[in-house]
């Protein structure tokens, strides 16, 4: 009589551990991943930055005083040369515009990497 009670207890323990494992796996599956935006670099275009940082292109164009064009694929270093400004200044202006936009329109689960590591 004690033998079948022992096996029943072991079976209950195994089933409860299995249920815990299943719920842990489901929690991990439905946890949204953190988005990581890479630092702004000289080769990046405004549409690329807008996509990576989830900001409208119009916000970035307005910050740089650049007219918004449909297929503007100029990299930042070319825009900096045309405006006779250092690239670091353009990157700082873009960071400020992105941060200002983010304060009004927060994006959950986002981690922004610093520009200079």
What would you note in describing this structure?
This protein is mostly helical and about 120 residues long. The chain folds into 2 domains: about 30 residues; about 80 residues. Helix content is about 60%, strand content about 5%. It contains 5 helices and 2 strands. Strands 1-2 form a two-stranded parallel ribbon. The longest helix is centred in the first third of the chain and has 29 residues. The protein is rod-shaped.
Question: What are the salient characteristics of this protein?
Answer:
117 residues, mainly alpha, single chain, 5% strand, 61% helix, two-stranded parallel ribbon
How would you summarize what this structure contains?
This protein is mainly alpha-helical and 117 residues long.
Q: Let me know the number of strands.
A: 2
Distance between the termini: 68 Å
Q: Are there runs of 5+ residues with pLDDT below 50, and where?
A: none
Q: What's the domain count? A: 2
Spatial order of the strands forming the largest sheet: 1-2
Oligomer: single chain
Biggest sheet features: 2 strands, parallel
Q: What is the H-and-E element order?
A: HEHHHHE
Average pLDDT value?
A: 85
- Relative helix content: 55-70%
> Structural class of the secondary elements?
mainly alpha
Rg, nearest Å: 26 Å
What general form does the structure show?
Answer: rod-shaped
């Amino acid at each position: 009589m004690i033998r079948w009670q022992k096996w029943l207890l072991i079976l209950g323990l195994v089933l409860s551990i299995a249920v815990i494992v299943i719920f842990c796996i489901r929690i991990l599956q439905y946890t949204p991943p953190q988005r990581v935006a890479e630092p702004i670099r000289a080769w990046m275009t405004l549409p690329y930055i807008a996509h990576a940082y989830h900001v409208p292109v119009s916000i970035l164009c307005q910050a740089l005083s650049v007219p918004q064009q449909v297929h503007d694929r100029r990299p930042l270093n070319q825009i900096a040369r045309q405006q006779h400004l250092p690239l670091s200044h353009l990157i700082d202006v873009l960071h400020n515009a992105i941060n200002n936009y983010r304060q009004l329109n927060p994006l959950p689960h986002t981690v922004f990497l610093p520009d200079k590591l």
